[in-house]
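New to this. Please check both lines:
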Amino acid sequence: MAVSLNRLLPIRAIGPGICLIGRDRFSLIMEATPVNFSLRSLGDQDRLIHGYTAFLNGLHFPVELLVRSDVLRLDDYLGDLKSREEEIEPALRPSLGDYIDFIQEAVSVHHLLRRRFFVILPWQGSDSRSRPLRRGEVLWQEAEQELFRRRDIIIQGLRPLGIRLRMFSTEETFRFFYASLGGGQPLPPGVNWAWD
C-alpha cells in the first residue's frame, strides 16, 4: 500500500534550512560535526558530559537531535580514481590499483556507514487555532526570526564543546528530506528546486 509522502509529512514550503509543515509549524535544520568522544581522556569526557548537560538544562525551547546512518556510496570516488590513473607516475600506478581493489573489497565485504548528526529546531506560530492563518510571508518572517534567534543560542552553547553547526541551503534541505523519507536513495538528477 503506497502512502503519500505529503500525507505523512505535509511539507508546504522549503527555504534555506527552514521548512513549513502544515499550516504554521516550522523547522530549522542544521548539521552538526561530531566529537570523537571515545578518543578523549576521561577528564575530557567528564567535561563534555557536564558541559552538554548544562547546555541542555539551559534551553527553554524544544530541540530535536537526529542521528542518521547512511550506506556509504563510493562508486563516484572509485570512478574518479580510475579516471586519474593515467595522470599519475607509472611507478605509482600499481599502488593505486591495489588501493582501488582494497576499497572495492572493503565495500563488498563490510557495510560501510556514514553517520550524520542533525539538530532540528521546531517552532509553531502562537494562537494558531484562535486566528486565521496570516499571510504566508509574514508568518515565514516571524518563524525565521525566532528560529534564527534559537539557532544562535544553540551554536553558542555547543561551540565550547567542539561541536560546529551548519545550516542547510534550500537544495540541501530538499536532499535531507528526500534522503530521510525517500528510502535513502540519492535524488535523481535534474530536480527542480522551486517549490510549487
User: Anything to note?
Assistant: The radius of gyration is 22 Å. Confidence is low (pLDDT under 50) at residues 129-133. Residues 8 and 163 are 31 Å apart (CA to CA).
